[in-house]
Amino acid sequence: MQDSLKMSTVDLDFYYGNFHALHGVTIDFYENQVTALIGPSGCGKSTLLRCLNRMNDLIPYTRVEGKVCLDGEEIYEPDVDVVALRRNVGMVFQKPNPFPKTIFENVAYGLRVNGIKDKAFLADRVETSLKQAALWDEVKDRLHDSALDLSGGQQQRLCIARALAVEPEVLLMDEPASALDPIATQKIEELIRDLKKRYTIIIVTHNMQQAARVSDITAFFYLGEIIEVDKTETLFTRPKLKQTSDYITGRFG
Amino acid sequence: MKKHLQRELEKLKKRILSLGGMAEESVRMAIQAFETRDGDLAMKIIDSDREIDEAEVEMEEECLKILALHQPFAIDLRFINAVIKINNDLERVGDEAVNIAERVANIAGKPPVEVPFEYNVMAEKSEAMLKSSLDALVNLDADLAYKVCLLDDEVDEINRDIYDKVKAAIQEQPERVGYLINLLLISRHLERIADHATNIAEEVIYMVEGEISRHRNDMFKPDDA
Q1: The domain spanning residue B68 has which CATH number?
Q2: Cα separation of B112 and B93, whole Å?
Q3: In Å, how far from its chain's centre is CA A128?
Q4: 3-state SS of chain A: helix, strand, coil percent to 5?
Q5: How far apart are CA A216 and CA A221, in angstroms?
Q6: Domain that holds residue B118
Q7: B69–A contact, CB cutoff 8 A
C-alpha cells in the first residue's frame, strides 16, 4: 500500500537576515507516520519545523524560497489563512507552556477563540482531547484546577491535548520530552506511538535513542542540508553515508 | 560517553581475537595429533577445550552488557552482532578440534590403513580459511572475507572425495571398518571447521557492508573474466 503524502518541501531555502539557514531542503512527510529530524545543534531542524506551519513568519527579517505543501497545496501562497494553517498543523514546544488558566480552559481555549460556545460540545471535545493525550484519568476530577499546578510531564500532555482539541492533521513536536523526567518521557513516547494512528507527526529530537524508538522515518540534517533520509530501522542499523554513521555513532557532533 | 563505548569495543575486538587464537591453536594441535597419531596430544586438546568454552560465555556476557548500557547504532551495533555470532562459531571450532582429537585417540596405537587421502591439503585449507577469516575481522576486510567463502567449495569437494575413497577402502578392507570410519569423521570435522570459517567471513561482510550475505549461493562464484 502506497503511503500517502501529507506534507512536503521542495527546494526549500530559508534565511534569517543574511544567514542561509536551510539549503535546498526537499523532504516528504507521509500520513500517519512519525518522522524524526535529527542532527547537531544549529543544523536547521527546528527552523524546518517552524516553516511547516509558518511560525517563522513571526520572526522579523526572515525569507523563504521554494515550496512547502500540505495535501498538495502550497502554504506560502499569499491567500493562505495562516491561523487556520496553524490549527491544522499544530505545534508542541520543548518547554511545556500551558496558559495561566484552568486545565479545562487550556484545552477549550482554541475552540472558544474559533467561536464555539456550546458548553456540551466544549466539554465533550475537552474530554476527547485529554483522553487522546493520555491525561484524562489524572485530571478528570480537577478540571477547574490551575494548569500550572500540574507536573512537567502532565503540563506537556496538556499542551498536546490543547493542540489536539482543534483537530489538526499534523502535529509538529520540537523536542517534546527534553525537559521531562524519564517516566514522563516514556509516557510522551508511548503517546506519540498512539497518536500516529490518527495524525501525522514530525518530531525534532536530540536524543537519537528516542528517534530510534518512536519514529518510522528519520532525516539527518547537517548545516542546513538533509544528508540522509530513510526508514528509521535502516538508518540506525546500516546508514548509507559515512557522515550519517559517524553522527549516530557519536564519532562527531 | 562515546569514548567509553569505543574503549569497550576495542577490548571486545582484542578478546575475540584472543579466542580466535585459542581456536586456531586447538585446530593446529588436533591436525598435528592426527598426523603423528599422538594419543597424548589428543588428550591435551580435549582437556584445554574448557578454556575456550569459558571464554565464549564471558564474551557473550560482555556483548550483552555493552548493548544494554550503550545502545549502539550502525557499525557499532553490527560489530557486536558479528562478535556474538563469531564467538559462537569459534567455540564450535574448538569443539570440532576436540572431535578430531577424540578420533585420534580412537585410532592411536592401532595399525594404520594406507589410503591416499588428501588430508594434508584439506587440513591446510581449513586452517588457512580460519586464519584468513580472523584476519578479515581484524582489518574489516570484506575482500578477504569473500575469498574465504570461495574456498569453502574446495574443501567440500575434498570431503566428498574422501568419502568416496573411504567407501572403496571399506569394501577392500572390511576388517578395518572401525578405523576407516574414524578417518571419514576426521574429514567431516575439518569440513565443519571450514564451514565455521565461512560463517565468520560472512559476518565480517555484513559488518562492513551492511548486507546479510548468508545463504546466497550466487555471491561466491568467481567472476568470468
Answers
A1: 1.20.58.220
A2: 26
A3: 20
A4: 40, 25, 35
A5: 16
A6: 2-224
A7: no
In angstroms, the CA B62 to CA B15 distance is: 10
> Contact at 8 Å (CB) between B23 and B93?
yes
Is B56 at the interface with chain A, CB within 8 A? no
Closest C-alpha to A44, from A67, A10, A15, A77: A15
Phi and psi, residue A231, nearest 5°: -55, 140
With CA atoms as reference, the chain A residue closest to B210 would be A238
For residue A118, which amino acid is it?
D
Count other Cβ atoms within 10 Å, centred on residue A74.
Answer: 12
Q: Which of B5, B73, B211 sits opposite A236 (nearest CB)?
A: B73
How deeply is A169 buried, as exposed, middle or buried, from its count of CB atoms within 10 A (0-12, 13-18, 19+)? Answer: middle
Residue A67 burial (CB count, 10 A): 15
Among A209, A215, A228, A237, most B C-beta atoms within 10 A, so best to mutate, is A237
Per-residue pLDDT of chain A (253 residues; tens, 9 = 90+): 457 999 999 999 999 999 999 999 999 999 999 999 999 988 999 999 999 999 999 999 999 999 999 999 999 999 999 999 999 999 999 999 999 999 999 999 999 999 999 999 999 999 999 999 999 999 999 999 999 999 999 999 999 999 999 999 999 999 999 999 999 999 999 999 999 999 999 999 999 999 999 999 999 999 999 999 999 999 998 899 999 999 999 888 6
Q: DSSP H helical segments within chain B, as ranges?
A: 2-36, 39-70, 74-107, 119-139, 142-172, 177-209
DSSP one-letter code for B219: G
Instruction: Retrieve residue B214's grid coordinates.
Output: 548468508
Alpha-carbon torsion A243, A245, A251, A252, what sign? positive
**In terms of Cα–Cα distance, which of A6, A37, A27 is closest to A174?**
A37
Q: What is the total count of domains within chain B?
A: 1
Cell of B21: 587464537
Closest partner residue to B72 among A239, A244, A249, by Cβ? A249
- In whole angstroms, what is the distance from residue A88 CA to residue A166 CA? 8
Residue A19 one-letter amino acid: F
